[in-house]
Amino acid sequence: MKKPWSGRFKQSTDRLMEAFSASIAYDSKLYAHDIAGSIAHAKMLAHTGIIRPGEANKIVSGLEKIRKEFETGRFEFRQSLEDIHMNIESRLAELIGPVAGKLHTARSRNDQVCLDIRLYLRAEVGEIRAAILELEKTLLDLAVKHIDFIVPGYTHLQRAQPVSLAHHLLAHLEMLERDRGRLADALKRIDVMPLGSAALAGTNFPIDRAYTAKLLGFAKISNNSIDAVSDRDFLIEFTAAAAALMMHLSRFAEEVVLWSSSEFGFIELSDAFSTGSSIMPQKKNPDPAELVRGKTGRVYGNLVSLLTMMKSLPLAYNRDLQEDKEPLFDTVDTVKMCLAVFTGMLQTATFKQVPLDKLRQSGFLTATDMADYLVGKGLPFREAHGVTGRTVAYCLEENKHLEQITLGELRKISSRFEKDIFDYIALEKSVDRKDVLGGTSRKRIRQQIARLRRALVK
Ligand code: ARG
After folding, report:
1. Taking 90 as the threshold, does the pLDDT of residue 279 lie above it?
2. Structural class in CATH, domain 15-105
3. Residue 76 near residue 175 (C-beta atoms within 8 A)
4. Ranges of each domain in the chain
5. What is the pLDDT of residues 199-232, one digit of tens each?
6. Is 277 marked active-site?
7. How far apart are CA 248 and CA 254, in angstroms?
8. pTM of the shown model
């Protein structure tokens, strides 16, 4: 197949070189965006009188035909034509003849490839944001159902203080909401039209960039042609936001793995979102959470690949930039899959309330409340902390939990203790006393849920 750029070449491309430089195996994903961009460009060329309207019509209907060929799986890919852009251009020439050659007026593959990935990413970011929203709504529904579930909150993975399960789930929701916001910010810098930069300098033709941008629905037009063809920070920013999102999913996944162990026993995944063991018949494993945790590494790797690929590139376009696509596509596919699976996994999971007696028996969850109680009785907090610490030490020696020791025993440690201490350190009381903005009291959680119901919109 004759290459569109072969005019100055005397020898044909080595087969090895052809295979090495081809990107068609993966950038075929961009076909719809490439065609949309070409249609807009052809219309602009006619609008500005650079080509005739009849010529533009021929080009547009040829491109529409090619779109059908893709949609019906009839398009014949040729590796010798390197990438999606030249594959489409050559096919257009086969279909409509020499007039196809006018489409590339005032355009280079350099601004074309940039346009395509911007169009692609704009659409995908929309989908990813919608998928995050879906997960957030799932968490909100779960929070509503589990306000009264008391779970141990942890620091250092040691039992710390009692919290409502709803509060814990809403903590994850907050992270996801920031991820959604980060993607919305990234979108501002994705939604910029590079067409008209041509190879790097701009073009000799009197094009109308605003017209093309309007046809393609871009919010902005790039200001500098050299920057426009060599900038990839919009996709690095996207991948960084995706990496942060995966980091959040991975932390949550880690908890799901821990929580589904018999040691924790806070959650049971549905059979539909679990897998078994080929040897141990009793096993039911939280593989979806483990895979999300594992796939986080790929997305981090993609971010590092992109940053490294860019770091020493002189302006403007360099072929290295072709290496942007696989990490980008892999990031998009991984993130979408992980979000969908995570949502399904949570929607079908069952949370299990650990019996309150069991919670009372381990971890001294309300020790901080005891110290706060003593502050209420006039002790400075540091002294109250010391007294409570000695009480915990006493309990450990006597093999008792906090609510099991008698007032007499307590008063031997500090005369500030009175009989209202037992009510003060009850688990539910502890939770509801965290009545500050952002605290775990059930009243505050209900307020947060009401706020989120209003906030969680597209
Ligand atoms: N397939 C190339 C890429 O993805 C398209 C741009 C090629 N431009 C060039 N001057 N060789 O980057």
Report:
1. no
2. mainly alpha
3. no
4. 15-105, 110-205+222-353, 357-446
5. 999 999 999 999 999 999 999 999 999 999 999 9
6. yes
7. 10
8. 0.95
Name the pairing type of β-strands 150-155 and 158-164.
antiparallel
Q: Is 372 in the pocket of ligand 1 (CB under 6 A)?
A: no
For residue 143, the number of C-alpha atoms closer than 13 Å in the C-beta half-sphere is 27
Q: Which residues pair with 164 in a beta bridge?
A: 150
For ligand 1, mutation pick of 77, 231, 322, 328 (most atoms within 8 Å of CB): 322
Fold designation for 357-446: Ribonucleotide Reductase Protein R1; domain 1 (1.10.40)
Confidence class of residue 281 from pLDDT cuts 50, 70 and 90?
confident
127-175: pLDDT as tens digits: 999 999 999 999 999 999 999 999 999 999 999 999 999 999 999 999 9
| Mean confidence (pLDDT) of the chain | 96
Tell me the CA–centroid distance for residue 182 and ligand 1, in Å: 29
Q: Is any atom of ligand 1 closer than 6 Å to the C-beta of 112? A: no
Residue corresponding to tokens 């589990």: 146
CA of 371 to the centre of ligand 1 (A): 67
- CATH architecture of the domain 110-205+222-353 equals Up-down Bundle (1.20)
Instruction: State pLDDT tens for residues 56-92.
Output: 999 999 999 999 999 999 999 999 999 999 999 999 9
Q: Among this protein's residues, is 164 annotated catalytic?
A: no
The C-alpha atoms of residue 267 and residue 163 are separated, in whole angstroms, by 16
Expressed in angstroms and rounded, the spacing between residue 101 Cα and the centre of ligand 1 is 18
**From 6, 21, 61, 277, active-site residue:** 277
Say yes or no: CB of residue 197 within 6 Å of ligand 1: no
